[in-house]
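Figure S4 source data
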Amino acid sequence: MNSQLAKNTKVLIVDDQALAKGYMKYSLEELGFSDITYVDKINSALTSLRSHKFDLIICSYNLKREQDGYYFYDEIKTNGELPLSTAFVFISADTNSDLVQSIIELQPDDFLAKPFTVKDLDRRLSRVLARKKALHGVYLCIDKNQYVQALSEVELFLGNPKHSEFFPLALKIKGEMLSACGNFQQAKDFYQAILKVQTFTWAQLGLVNSYLRLNEDESAEKLVLRLAFKPDSQLAAYDLLTALQIKQNDFDTALECVMMATEISPRNIRRHKTAMDLSRITHDYETQFEAAKKIVRFAKNSIHDKPENYLNVARAGIDYAMTTEASDTDRLIKQANEYIRQLKQAFPKADIQEQMKVVNARLLYLEDEKDNALSLLYKLDEDSWENEGIDALLDKAKIFHDLGLHERSQAVLEQIEERCKKNSDQSEIFLHYINQEKQEKAAIKFSSKDLNNTAVGYFQKGDLDNAMKVFTQAFTIMPKNASIALNLIQAISSKAEKLGVATVSDTLLKKCIKTIENSKLDEVQQQRYHKIRTMLDALQ
C-alpha cells in the first residue's frame, strides 16, 4: 500500500460485529490508514456520509440491524450520495448465490470475502484506490452530468501510456459517455471496434443498447439472446430484452423476460414495479398481485418502503378477486385486508383515510353491496384529489366504472394521463396502460365482475350474437380466466354449428385454447372442452 495514499484516504467502515470491526481496524492501521470512522448502523452511516466526504467505504453486506448493506448501497446510489470518486467495497462471510447475483447487479468497486488477510486487503484496496485516483477527473465530470467534458477527459486519459493498467475501464466509460451524449452511431462503431480486439461483456451489452437506440432491433435481439445465457451478463441481457419487447409492444414476452430476471435477482424493486406495469397491460392479475407483494417484502427497511406499497397489494388483490373464480374471492379479500392491517401497523401516522374509502368501496362492490359502495364514494373529499398519487386516482377510476359512473371514470383516467405526460419520472409503460384503460372502459361498460354473468344470460336466452360480443369483452380483460375462455369458445362453437362455419378469427380461438390448455380444469370443464373441440375440429 502506498503510505501517502493510505494517509490521505478518509475511510468509513460500516459493520455491526465487534470482532470484525476490531480486525478491520488493526488491518487498516497496519496498512497506514489513520482517518477512519466506524459505525454499526445504517442510519449512523447515512449521517456520517451526509456530513463528511469519504474516499473509501467498506461495508458489511450482512448487517442485521434495520437495513443491510444491499439497501444502504441502493439508497446512496439512488439519492446520488455516492460519488463515483468514492470507492465502495462490500465484505461478507457469506457467498451464497443471492449475494453473488446482488454483487453482479450492484457492481460495487470490489467485494472481499471473509476471512481475509492483511495482505489480501492491501492488494484489493491498493488496486481500487489507485483506479479511483487515476480516473478522478473523469469521475468528477460524470458526477456533475458533464458528459461531453467527461468524454474529453477520458480521451486524454487513454492517450497517456502510464494509465494502461486502467485502459479497459476507461474504454468502458468512453462507450457509456458516447451514449450519454446521444452519439449512438459513434457508440456502435466504438463497441464494434472493441469487440474485434477482445469480446468484453460490457462492450457486447453496450452494442445491444446502441442497436436499440438506432432501431436496429433484429441485430439487438440476436446479440442479447446470446448474452442471456452467460452468467455475468444474464441480468443485464434480460433488462435489454425487456426493453426491446416493450419497444415492439410485445408486452407478454416483456413480462416473461422481467419475471425471469426477478427470479435471478429478487431484491430489485425496480424490476418488480416493471412487472406490475406489464401485468396490468396484459391483464395478468395474479402476476400483478404477486409483484405487489414482493415490492412490500423487499422494500421493508429500505428507501422504497412506504404506505403506497401496502395499498397497492390490497388494490391488486381486489383486481384479482374481481377477475378470478368465485371460489378464490374470500381468500383474496382476506389477503387484501391483511396488508391493510400491516400498513396501519408499519405506518400508524399515515394519512390514508381517503384512499381507504375507495378500497373499502371496491371491497363492498365485490361483495355485491353496491349501495353501500356508492354511499362511501359520496363521502370522498374531491378537493384532495390534486394531492393524491396516481395509484389512488386509478383506484377511483376503477370503482366509478364498476358502479356505472362512466363519465367520472373517464375524467379521472384523463387526469392521470395528463399528470403522466407532465411527470418525466412516470414510465412509458404505465402511460400505455392508462391509454389502454381509457379505451377499454369506454368500449366495455360492464364491470369485469358482471361481464361473464351478463354473457351467460344472453347465451341461455339463445342470443348468440350478444353472448359472443360480451364473452369477447370479458376475455379481453380477463385473458387468463379459463372459465371465460371456455364460455367464449362454447359460444363460438354454438354459432359455428348453427351457421355451419366458424365466424371468429383464428387468433381469438388460439388465445382461448392456450388459456384453457394452460389451466387446471375440473372434470366437468374437461368434458365440455373435449366436446367443443370435437365440434370445432369437425367444422374446419
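Figure S5 source data
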Amino acid sequence: MRRHLIVGTVTVALTMITLSAFASPLSPLPGPRYALRLFPEISGLPGLPSAPPPAALPTTGFPLGSPKAPKVVSERVAPGIDYFTLTHGTSTDGYTVSVVVRGKDALSETTARAQALAVEESGYSPSIVKFTEPAVADHPAADFWTVRVGAWPLGKMAEAAHVVKQLKKAGITAKVDFGGDDGFQTGGPWTVRVLMIDPRSFRGTFRSSLGAGVAARETVSAMAASADAVAAVNGGFFDIHTRKDFRGDPTGISVVGGDLLSEAVPGRTGLVLAGRRARVTELSSSVVAAAGDGAKLEVGGLNRVARADELVMYTEELGRATPSDRGVEVVLDASGEVLRPRGPGAPVPHGTRVLHGRGTAADWLREHAAAGMTVDVTAKVTDLRTGHVVPLTSETSIIGGGIGLVRDGRTSITAAKDGMANVNMIVRRHPRTLAGVTASGELVVAVVDGRAPDTSVGASFFESAELMRWLGARDAISLDGGGSSTMVVGGKVVNHPSDGAERGVGDALLIVGR
C-alpha cells in the first residue's frame, strides 16, 4: 500500500509493509527505498508581488491539497488592514492506531519490527510504514518506521480507542491517530485566517506584549484588549519545562518598547518590529554587568530562573517575586547604584533592577556590588544577517522563540537552530501561527487551524513555508502553534484554538491603531 509524504508541492511515496512480508527478524525490508530531496525552488509557485492589491489573494497554486484556489471571504478591518478567511479541501482521512515507544511513534527499524511482532502476538494484524523525515536547511534527512493497526472512518473513532485499550492489556502502548495529522498526502480540509497590513496606508504600529508579566501567561485577547489593538496573534514559544510560576518566559528573545526582557538563543530567528516596519532575521543578544571597580561579568539570563554559577537580571516587568533559592541579590536604581543587597524571593521594586547570582556569580556580587557601589548593566541586540546592532528605541519590539521558514523568497526551514528538529514538528501537521514580510514591506500574519478533522487539519513546516510564499512573504517565521495558535480581530477570537478554549501564552504580536 502506498501513501505520500507532502513536502511543499512535492509528494514522495511511502511503503506500507504487513508483518507477513518479513522472512526473519533480521531480513531487510522489502520494496524500494524512497529518497526525498528538498528543492530550494518549487516550480509552479507564483512570483512575489511588489504590492498585493487590497482584498485580493493569488488565484492559483494554493499549496495545501488541490492547487485550485480556496474559497475566500475578505474584510477591510481598518485602513491598510485586510482580513481573509480561506477554506479549502474536504476530509479524506480517518483513524488508525499507532504504537508508541517512550512517547514516540517514529521508531527505528529494529524497534518497529519488535513492536509489530508483539502486536501480532496480541491477536492483531499490524502494518509497518517506513517514511523519511525530509532534510531542512540545517538538519539532514532521516528514515523512520511506525507501526499501525487498522483503519476506521471518522465516525468510528471509538473502535480505534477500543483497540488501544486491548493493546494496553497486552503491555503495548498505543494511541488513536488521525490520518490527516501525519504529514502524508491528504485532501484536507483547511481553514486559514490571514491578516495583510500595508504600511503605506496603515497608520498604526506593530508591537509585542508580554501581558501582565514576563513570568506569567495571558490570553491573546486580554493582551489585545489592554493595548486597544485592532488585531493580534500569539507570539513565540514559551518555557513549559521551568518552574510552574515562570512558564510564561519566552524561549528566545523578547523586546518590548525598547527593553530587552528575555535574552536571545544565539542564531534563532525572530520578528523585529519598529513602528510600521517589520523584518525577519536571526539575532543574538549580550548583557554585561560592569562594576565600578572595573570587574565585569556576563548576565546569562533575563527574567528567568538562574542556573548554577549564573548571574541573571530581573526587571520590574517580571510581574512576580524573584525565585527563592540559595543565591544572592542586589537592587540597582536606574543609574546603576546598588541600593542594598537582599535575599532572593521578593518583588522587583518599581524603577529598579535586581541582579541575582548563584554560586560563583553570588561571590562576584558580594565582592563587586556592595551597597553604594555602582554596577552598569548594558544590553545589546545584534542582527546576525547584517552584523548591525538593533537600535533599542521605544518603538522597537522583538518576538523570538520561533522557527525560520522562508528566506529571500525560498523555503529555508531552520528547525535545528531553532530547537525543533524532530518528526513531530517537521513532518506532522499542527495548528500554526505564521508571520512574514513581503518584498515591499507588508506584514502578513496567518493562523492555520488544526487538530479538527472535520474543519482543518493544520500544516507541516513545509506546508507552512509554501503557504507563506503563496501569500507573498519574502521572509517568514513560524511562531508558537498547537493550542497556542490564536488570532484576535476587533476584540474577538476569530479562529478555533485546538484546546477548545483560548490558551494563556507567553507573548503576543499586536497591531495597534493610532
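The helical segments are 109-121, 157-169, 220-226, 360-368, 423-426, 461-470. The radius of gyration is 25 Å.
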